Amino acid sequence: MPTARWNGAIIAQSDDTVVVEGNQYFPADSVDPALLEDSATHTICPWKGTASYKTLVVNGERNPDAVWYYPDPKSAAAEIKGRFAFWKGVTVG
């Protein structure tokens, strides 16, 4: 089962991931919300739309903007709506 881990904690785990551009997008309900903190960061992808970010907080350590998601993706990326992906040292496997 695909699992996202960082700093010794399981961030997300699900058999229902969607892979886009090599990144696994986990359903929102598979991500531990207690480990997420809101971020003001946004980026724009020409075909997916505007991404929003969250900061991971695990065992007192912060990993700024290590989680991204598309709250309102363009139609070409509709399959990732309500899903989260990870980077910045988060291992997914």
UniProtKB/TrEMBL annotation:
<feature type="domain" description="DUF427">
    <location>
        <begin position="4"/>
        <end position="88"/>
    </location>
</feature>
<dbReference type="InterPro" id="IPR038694">
    <property type="entry name" value="DUF427_sf"/>
</dbReference>
<dbReference type="Pfam" id="PF04248">
    <property type="entry name" value="NTP_transf_9"/>
</dbReference>
<protein>
    <recommendedName>
        <fullName>DUF427 domain-containing protein</fullName>
    </recommendedName>
</protein>
<dbReference type="InterPro" id="IPR007361">
    <property type="entry name" value="DUF427"/>
</dbReference>
